[in-house]
Every structure is written in structure tokens, then in C-alpha cells.
UniProtKB/TrEMBL annotation:
<keyword id="KW-0732">Signal</keyword>
<feature type="signal peptide">
    <location>
        <begin position="1"/>
        <end position="22"/>
    </location>
</feature>
<protein>
    <submittedName>
        <fullName>Putative membrane protein</fullName>
    </submittedName>
</protein>
């Protein structure tokens, strides 16, 4: 039942985030993303390494093939957890359990800034641990972040 609840929360969060990416003025019948596409999000393959980072509080980590490592300044080596992957219409959901609390992450395409550097990331990340929601940015080894020129 916990897995179903976690998957449902991930799906709801992903749908909410994806809704803002629909084309302006287009009626998608209430379905997020591009109404011309029924394909699941494929920009981040299961074998790709997803990197993510957030501030206030500082957190980050990586995810690949059903395993996610979550890092904080207090635990820089990270905590590994098994995650379920869900590819929606305009993003990716990862869900599991961290220290007995639901861990739900959504990753959607769109330029993201971490607020600490001038780097630009190709993905926005929303993380929910229990009742706490955090915002961050993400990238993969094949679609990295960009550094400012200068």
C-alpha cells in the first residue's frame, strides 16, 4: 500500500508540474504536457545517471537504475535508497522511502538556476520528503549544466 501511495503522490506532483508546460491556449483536456504526444518522457533513460542539487537546506545526489543516493552536508557520503521510476508525459518521477518517510522526486525539463552559482541546468527538480517540499535542479552526464561565459 505504501508503494501505491508513493507512486500516486509522485504522479500527482508530476502532473501538477507538467501542467505548466502545456502550450498556451491549447486545450489538452486537462492532461499535462503536449496533447500531440502520448509517449512517456524519455529524455532521461533508466541507465542515465541523474544528478540533482538543491539549496536551503543544501542537498543533492544521484539516481540510476532504481537506486538513488541522497546527500546532505551532515551526510556527504549519502544515503542509498531503492526508488520506483515513473515516466510521465513531461517528466520523471522517482519514489521510495528515506528514514521511514515518503521520498518523492519529480524531474521536468526546463532551464533551472540553483541560486548559488551562475550555472544553468536542463531540469527542474521538486523533492518531497514526508511533508517537506524542496526545490532544486538536475542534469545528466549526457545533458549537463552550462557555465557562464567570461
Amino acid at each position: 500500500m505504501t508503494t501505491m501511495r508513493t507512486a500516486a503522490l509522485s504522479l500527482l506532483a508530476l502532473a501538477a508540474l507538467s501542467a505548466c508546460h502545456a502550450r498556451r491556449g491549447e486545450d489538452n483536456g486537462g492532461v499535462p504536457g503536449d496533447s500531440d504526444s502520448a509517449k512517456p518522457f524519455s529524455a532521461i533513460a533508466p541507465r542515465d545517471t541523474l544528478h540533482f542539487v538543491g539549496t536551503e537546506p543544501f542537498w543533492g545526489g544521484t539516481a540510476r537504475e532504481g537506486t538513488l543516493t541522497y546527500t546532505t552536508p551532515a551526510k556527504p557520503e549519502g544515503t542509498k535508497l531503492a526508488v520506483n521510476r515513473f515516466a510521465g508525459r513531461n517528466g520523471l518521477g522517482l519514489s521510495g522511502t528515506l528514514d521511514g518517510r515518503a521520498f518523492d522526486m519529480t524531474v521536468t525539463p526546463g532551464t533551472c538556476g540553483d541560486g548559488m552559482s551562475d550555472r544553468r541546468f536542463p531540469y527542474s527538480v521538486t523533492l518531497r520528503i514526508g511533508d517537506e517540499v524542496r526545490q532544486g535542479c538536475g542534469w545528466t552526464d549526457t545533458k549537463g549544466f552550462t557555465q557562464p561565459k567570461g
